[in-house]
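Hey, quick one: can you model this chain's 3D structure?
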Amino acid sequence: MFFAPGRKYAVLGASTNRGKFGNKILRWYINHKLPVKPINPSAEEVEGVKAYPTLNKYIEDLSISDEPIGVSVVTPPQVSFEMFKEVLEKRNADKIASIWFQPGSFDSKVVKYVIEKLGVSKDSVISNNDCILVSGEGKLRDEI
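Sure thing. Here's the predicted structure for all 144 residues.
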């Protein structure tokens, strides 16, 4: 399950360029009134929302009482892998509940890593080339 009541989200690879998928996906969350933070190493904010340079920096800003987050991934596979590797190295793996790899953002190495090393349930990892812009609406309706 990717969506859950009260869950916060991050868009790994959020872009300031409105023509890029990282921006479109961030706006999808904003338009659906879901609590989301953009992850972008070179922007202070994206679409008026405070951005974080790394996924781990966002996780470190969460309060202890916050539930684990959902992550939409739009970065290339190697960047995705490095971001998740940092999360594990900083001992924050338990703060990720679900991951939606957008088309082009994953390979078998990173998917295996998040399931086996981060401990994200296989049922909570979407890695079938399904895009949130196409399938997110139905999934959101079904899960929340």
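One thing worth noting: The chain has one domain: 8-143.
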